[in-house]
Each structure stands twice: as structure tokens, then as C-alpha cells.
Recover the amino acids of this structure.
């Protein structure tokens, strides 16, 4: 037996009845020779981890735009926290941890600069045709490396369905969708308190009594409840009390952090920056990197400009705007 075959045998002995064994994958769009050392889902995880789009997450906003502090989350650290929570769920529920990790690492590859502000701007500029989960799928199917990463069907399904109304087809995908919400609710509270946007005593007392007083207690409550409620079930779920408290805490964040008045000026600037870049490259598509010029020939200028802007990091978008529209000092000879 190869090492991969030994790993598959171990999966079959360990996985629960609702899990996906790597040997049972629906496969890739382009068939590949099996790796002797890795399962198909391990291979997908590695392809995502080593791609350029993953590295760019380091400089993309989670909530606070281009933060100066060392301890604020970025889209990359958010992704790693989602991966940790999702893998814990998968392990405890006897699901495929490698599939879960691959989905988690890839779920935000298509996210815009400036977080959800950037997503709203591109959605407006494209007449409602931009969503970051769909862009993440486009990254792994088409954009990365010029031809995509050729991932398995299960990983691609989990990536595109980690948010939105349609559920993933696998429980591993559901682990990531649950972990995404658990992670951002808790770490965004942590960052908001660090930034002085929220103070600890402002958190709703009735929700804190249910979920926990500290960051770690709240995460533990949510994870433990999902595990307890979902063992041997065809879908993941929370108990009614924990689900209600989690949803209410999320609503509190939207009101007091994500959509609060303190962000209006900052988000207006981000919207202006991306809108200006969008208009400029719609008029000058030949000035984009060649890979996006080729997309404009194949799929149209709007599609190419959207892809180019979505791939930008915060700092690259700001630097590009500065180079195009800000005056440069005349050198002293």
C-alpha cells in the first residue's frame, strides 16, 4: 500500500457516516495522477496554502482598515482562526478534517480590499453581481495562476457556500460556515474593544450570561454546543438558546461596529478610492497587468477590472490610487 492508501484506510476506519472520505470525492475538472503521499483533500489544502491569493490575505482588511496595531486581525488571521474552529468541529464530529481545512483556508481568497466595504462597492459598481464567496470560487477555478487550482468538487462547493442562503453539500462545508461566524463574532468584539469602539461593559449582559464573560468562554460555548447538538446528525446545528444568543450578538455587532456612524467617513473614502480606480481601468484596460488584459478580451472589461480590484490588498489599492491621481514632487537637482 502507498502512504495515500494507508491514509484512506485510516479515514474509512475513523470517519462517521455523514463524512466524506477522500477516495469518494467527485473529482476535479481536470483529472490528475494520484499523489502517493497525500489524499486528494490534503493536496487541495496544500495548493491553497501555497498560492499567491492566500499570501495576499495578510494585507486585506478584516474590520479595521490598514490597522497600525500589531494585534488587529487581518483577513489572513481570520482565515486561520476559522480553520482552527472548523477543524475542531470536524475532529469531534468524526468528519474529514483535511477537507474541512482546505475549505476553510480557501473560503475568503476572493475577498476585496477594505473588507465588506470593498465588497459593497464592487457589488454596486457591477449592478449587484459581486459577492466575495463567488469571487473566491472564481479565484480557485480560473484566476489563480491563470488557470485556477483544479481543486476537488467538495472543496469548491464548500468555498462558494460558506456564506449565503444555500447550504454546503457536505458537513465539512457546514463546519466552515459555522466556524466563520463563530470566529468573526468573537474576534471582531475583541478588536473593537482594543480599538476603543466598544467597551467591555457595553456588551449585552443577557447575552454574555448565556455565552460567557470572556472571549475564550464565548468561543468554547459556541463550539461545545455545536458538537453536542450535531453528533450523528445530517446537519450541524445549535441549541435554540445558544443559537438565539449568537444571532443577537451578531446583530449587536452590526449595529455597533460594522454599520455604526464612526465608520461612515472611513468607508466613504474606501468607496471613493475603489470607485475611482474602477472608472479609470474601465477607460484604460490596457494599463492593467497582462493577465487581466487577457481576461478583458475573453470575458469583457468589467469582468477583468472587477477581478483586478478584488485581488488587490489594501496597501496596493492605496498605492495604485496615489500613483495615478496624487501629484509627485518635482525632484531637486
Amino acid at each position: 500500500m502507498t502512504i495515500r492508501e494507508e491514509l484512506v484506510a485510516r479515514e474509512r476506519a475513523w470517519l462517521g457516516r455523514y463524512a466524506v472520505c477522500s477516495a469518494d470525492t467527485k473529482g476535479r475538472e481536470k483529472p490528475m495522477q494520484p499523489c502517493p503521499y497525500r489524499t486528494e483533500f490534503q493536496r487541495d489544502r496544500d495548493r491553497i496554502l501555497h498560492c499567491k491569493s492566500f499570501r495576499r490575505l495578510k494585507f486585506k482588511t478584516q474590520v479595521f482598515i490598514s490597522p497600525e496595531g500589531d494585534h488587529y486581525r487581518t483577513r489572513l488571521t481570520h482565515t486561520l482562526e476559522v480553520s482552527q474552529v472548523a477543524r475542531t468541529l470536524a475532529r469531534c464530529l468524526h468528519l474529514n478534517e483535511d477537507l474541512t481545512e482546505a475549505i476553510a483556508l480557501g473560503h475568503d481568497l476572493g475577498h476585496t480590499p477594505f473588507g465588506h466595504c470593498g465588497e459593497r462597492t464592487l457589488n454596486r459598481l457591477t449592478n449587484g453581481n459581486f459577492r466575495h464567496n463567488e469571487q473566491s470560487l472564481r479565484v480557485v477555478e480560473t484566476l489563480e495562476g491563470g488557470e485556477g487550482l483544479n481543486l476537488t468538487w467538495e472543496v469548491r462547493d464548500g468555498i462558494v457556500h460558506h456564506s449565503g442562503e444555500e447550504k454546503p453539500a457536505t458537513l465539512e462545508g457546514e463546519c466552515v460556515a459555522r466556524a466563520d461566524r463563530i470566529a468573526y463574532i468573537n474576534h471582531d468584539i475583541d478588536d473593537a474593544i482594543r480599538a476603543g469602539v466598544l467597551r467591555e461593559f457595553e456588551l449585552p449582559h443577557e447575552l454574555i450570561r448565556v455565552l460567557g464573560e470572556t472571549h475564550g468562554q464565548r468561543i468554547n460555548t459556541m463550539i461545545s454546543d455545536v458538537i453536542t447538538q450535531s453528533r450523528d446528525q445530517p446537519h450541524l446545528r445549535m441549541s435554540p438558546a445558544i443559537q438565539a444568543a449568537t444571532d443577537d450578538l451578531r446583530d449587536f455587532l452590526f449595529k455597533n461596529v460594522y454599520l455604526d456612524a464612526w465608520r461612515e467617513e472611513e468607508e466613504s473614502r474606501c468607496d471613493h478610492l475603489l470607485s475611482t480606480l474602477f472608472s479609470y481601468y474601465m477607460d484604460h484596460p490596457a494599463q492593467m497587468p497582462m493577465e487581466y488584459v487577457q481576461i478583458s478580451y475573453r470575458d469583457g472589461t468589467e469582468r477583468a477590472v472587477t477581478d483586478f480590484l478584488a485581488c488587490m490588498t489594501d496597501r496596493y489599492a492605496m498605492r495604485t490610487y496615489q500613483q495615478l491621481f496624487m501629484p509627485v514632487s518635482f525632484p531637486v537637482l
